Amino acid sequence: MNLEYLKEFVELAKRLNYTETARVLMMSQPTLSKHISQLERDLKLTLFYRDGNQHRLTNAGSALLPFAYEILDAIGKFRTKVGELRIAPEPKLRISGLTDEGPSTEVLGFLISLLNSKYGASCIEIKSQYNRNLINMLEADEVDVVYDPIPQDEKPQDDSLVSLHISDLQLTAIVSNNHRLAGRSEISVSDLDDETFVKYEGLYLGRSWEYIEQICSNHGFAPKLRSCYCASIAELFSLCTSLGESVLIVGCNFGERLPKGIKPFCKVLPITDEDAAIPFFFIYRKDNENPVLLDAVSLIEKMPQPPLYFGYSESYRNREHLAVKLI
């Protein structure tokens, strides 16, 4: 249905005079008559009766006229909103630093639950980082917030950025199936003081290494390391099949993702110490006045910190299961 024809129908219904209506619409009377006839064919209904030199609406025309007004009014509001959005787009929270792992999905769900009632679920916009420095993205105003463990060497030297502790990710040790610890169901950090850790580089996971080393230091030892470059998660999975005497320390979410074909080669051991967790932060610019960001921060600051914790549930001994706790 042609919306212009619908508008002409409404104008003709107001005046019931083709000549006057054509003049108001700045078109010829034959063109107006042609358009109204086409609209009637499209609807398969007669909209006007001709009574001598006068015209009047049919019952169908009278019944449809209020709806025509509603449609044209909605179109007008739609066009007005389009103009407003071109001038001032709907506020969004641009976020980066997320990976494709379970905790990132939970963080997004957490944000949507906080903001949905005021801004709608579409207020979150994920920005891919493509191996770019997250702090640089913040400083360039490409994103509003990043979700990251943010290593010390990437933190800015001034106070232009704010870090908000948003979640903790419990650590897990992965050992070969003939390792001395493989018979255990869980371990503590102190059980690893004589072990050699595989320090993986080249992956997002490697950004948390300084926290792992700090946790070991808090338990009285410096971890022995052997470096291993992994360009993909697939290579890290492959590493799990040939650990030998070394120990792989990862977030518990990675242990959950081990494929069935790899599990016979290794054992996943939760590390039970309370401090055996990697902190993740929302980092944002102090001068950012995005209302979505300000509202999210205000709501999160009222919660116990951190509001999210990712760790194994109590049913781990029966079946491995990643639990997400909202504190």
Descriptive account of the structure:
This protein is an alpha/beta fold and 327 residues long. It has three domains: 3-87, Arc Repressor Mutant, subunit A; 93-166 and 281-304, D-Maltodextrin-Binding Protein, domain 2 (3-Layer(aba) Sandwich); 168-277, 3-Layer(aba) Sandwich (D-Maltodextrin-Binding Protein, domain 2), CATH 3.40.190.290. The chain has helices at 3-15, 18-24, 29-43, 59-87, 102-119, 134-139, 209-218, 233-239, 252-256, 291-301; strands spanning 48-51, 54-57, 93-96, 124-126, 145-148, 161-176, 196-201, 224-229, 248-251, 266-270, 277-285, 308-312, 322-326. Strands 3, 4, 5, 6, 9, 10, 11, 12 and 13 form a nine-stranded mixed sheet that branches. It has a two-stranded antiparallel sheet with strand order 1-2. It is elongated and about 105 Å long. It starts with a helix and ends with a strand.
What series of H and E elements makes up the topology?
HHHEEHEHEHEEEHEHEHEEHEE
Q: Compute the number of structural domains.
A: 3
Overall geometry comes to elongated
User: What is the name of the CATH architecture of the largest domain?
Assistant: 3-Layer(aba) Sandwich
Number of H/I helices:
10
The number of E-state strands comes to 13
**Model regions low in confidence, pLDDT < 50 over at least 5 residues:** 314-321
Largest sheet: 9 strands, mixed
Helix content: 25-40%
CATH third-level topology of the largest domain: D-Maltodextrin-Binding Protein, domain 2
Mean pLDDT: 87
CATH class of the largest domain: Alpha Beta
Structural class: alpha/beta
The protein's oligomeric status is single chain
Q: What's the Cα radius of gyration?
A: 32 Å
**End-to-end distance:** 54 Å
Strand content: 15-25%
